[in-house]
């Protein structure tokens, strides 16, 4: 894009490009990206353990619900019938301050059995559920 600029004698072509609009646009884009960057960060809410265990946690052993391949339940190595699972969990957590349950399921167990155990635990008042992985 060339403009003619005259100095009175002979018209000449101006070959310089005006950089001001391009710099304005780039600065606006830079400002937009700087403002948008903190909003793009995603966070995950994670519960991290405290440095010192509480007295209730130190005294009481953890409760582990195991689901075997045949679908049978055991709570801390004690067999529990399916229909008594929720009542047994209620009885266990009656005198406990912490309501944490760890579930360890065999790899052959179908998801419906695990979901049924989770529902029974929630019905018994368990507030924190954990999964035990591996052996």
Written overview of the protein:
By secondary structure, the protein is of the alpha/beta class. The chain has 2 domains: 9-40, no CATH class; 55-131, Nucleotidyltransferase, domain 5 (2-Layer Sandwich). The protein has helices at 20-40, 55-59, 85-93, 111-123; strands at 3-6, 11-14, 63-67, 73-75, 78-80, 100-105, 128-131. The strands form 2 sheets. The chain has a 5-stranded mixed β-sheet, with helices on one face.
Element-by-element helix/strand order: EEHHEEEHEHE
Provide the CATH architecture of the largest domain.
Answer: 2-Layer Sandwich
How many structural domains? 2
CATH topology-level name of the largest domain: Nucleotidyltransferase, domain 5
CATH uppermost class of the largest domain:
Alpha Beta
Structure characteristics:
5-stranded mixed β-sheet; single chain; 135 residues; two-stranded antiparallel sheet; Nucleotidyltransferase, domain 5
SSE topology sketch:
Layout: E1 3-6, E2 11-14, H1 20-40, H2 55-59, E3 63-67, E4 73-75, E5 78-80, H3 85-93, E6 100-105, H4 111-123, E7 128-131
Parallel strand pairs: 3-6, 6-7
Antiparallel strand pairs: 1-2, 3-4, 4-5
State the gist of this model.
This protein has helices at 20-40, 55-59, 85-93, 111-123; strands spanning 3-6, 11-14, 63-67, 73-75, 78-80, 100-105, 128-131. The chain is α/β, with parallel strands linked by helices and 135 residues long.
């Amino acid at each position: 894009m060339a403009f003619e600029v005259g100095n009175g004698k002979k018209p000449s072509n101006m070959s310089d490009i005006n950089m001001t609009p391009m710099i304005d646009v780039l600065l606006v884009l830079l400002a937009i990206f700087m403002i948008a960057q903190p909003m793009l960060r995603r966070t995950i809410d994670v519960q991290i353990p405290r440095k010192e265990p509480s007295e209730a946690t130190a005294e009481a052993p953890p409760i582990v619900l195991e689901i075997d391949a045949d679908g049978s339940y055991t709570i801390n190595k004690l067999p529990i019938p399916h229909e008594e699972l929720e009542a047994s969990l209620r009885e266990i957590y009656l005198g406990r301050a912490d309501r944490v349950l760890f579930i360890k399921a065999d790899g052959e167990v179908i998801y419906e059995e695990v979901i049924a155990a989770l529902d029974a635990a929630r019905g018994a008042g368990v507030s924190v559920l954990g999964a035990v992985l591996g052996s």
